[in-house]
Write a structure and sequence with these properties.
The protein is α/β, with parallel strands linked by helices and 256 residues long. Helix content is 41%, strand content 15%. It has eleven helices and seven strands.
Length: 256
């Protein structure tokens, strides 16, 4: 069973990377999956601050030669647990350089390290956002698993993508998984972000009314189902497995 590095990317700002990372974190918590969160946005580690449990860390992703290799903490951590990485905007070249220089996705090294890398690519619907996804996929020549996450909280109408022949051919040829990330209503999003809460903290907040709880519950359930359908967590190690004397790890079912 390989540990997996989940890179939440999108290159541009404002496409929903932090929101999607938070959903991935709470998905892992719901199913008691083993993970470590690493927040690459060292100037504003908003995700790490909301989820400091399980050794969550912050790393600076910079071109500076002396600090560039700080990024290795992602790989070193993945030797022990699966990793969820929230990537800030404009680190595309840094991440590519890190993966390329060590040839982290070569089959031989993957077998040796036991570490797989995938990228959840947040897309805001603009032409340049779509083309950034294409560039990222083509850069790794299909060797790095990509999931196209169409953020309906940023763009509600994706019909224009049907006219983008290049990405349609790419999706069909490589069977690229697509996640249609739902919108969380603005009232609930504003409350949660203003108070800098995790989703579960919001659910327990005295000022977060019952109808708001239901909207958030619906958003999370829909998001969890979409993530689960991609299948990248099907073989994820479970935190409870250490307490089980023998037999198979628990199936992917929600904890009480």
């Amino acid at each position: 069973m390989a540990n997996r590095i989940h890179l939440v990317d999108g290159e541009k700002g404002g496409v929903g990377k932090s929101m999607f990372t938070r959903v991935l974190v709470e998905f892992n918590q719901k199913y008691d999956l083993l993970y470590t969160l690493i927040d690459g946005d060292f100037k504003n580690p908003d995700v790490q601050q909301r989820y400091p449990e399980y050794g969550a860390q912050v790393v600076a992703l910079v071109e500076d030669e002396e600090k560039f290799f700080d990024i290795d903490i992602i790989f070193e951590t993945a030797l022990e647990t699966p990793v969820i990485v929230n990537l800030p905007a404009r680190v595309y070249s840094i991440i590519n350089k890190w993966i390329d220089e060590a040839d982290l996705i070569s089959p031989d090294f993957k077998e040796k390290s036991g570490i797989d890398i995938c990228k959840w690519f947040l897309c805001g619907g603009t032409t340049d956002s779509i083309e950034m996804f294409i560039d990222s996929f083509n850069h790794f020549e299909g060797q790095l698993k990509h999931v196209l996450v169409r953020n309906f909280g940023v763009c509600k109408d994706w019909s224009h993508m049907q006219g983008h022949q290049e990405i349609l051919k790419l999706i069909q040829k490589h069977q690229i998984a697509i996640v249609d990330f739902p919108q969380l209503s603005s009232r609930e999003r504003k409350f949660i972000d203003t108070k800098r809460l995790s989703f579960q903290q919001a659910m327990q907040h005295s000022d977060f009314h019952l109808i708001s709880q239901q909207r958030l519950h619906t958003f999370l359930n829909e998001s969890y189902n979409l993530i689960e359908n991609v299948g990248l967590f099907n073989d994820a190690p479970n935190r409870l497995v250490e307490t089980i004397p023998s037999g198979k790890p628990p199936q992917l079912t929600a904890s009480s």
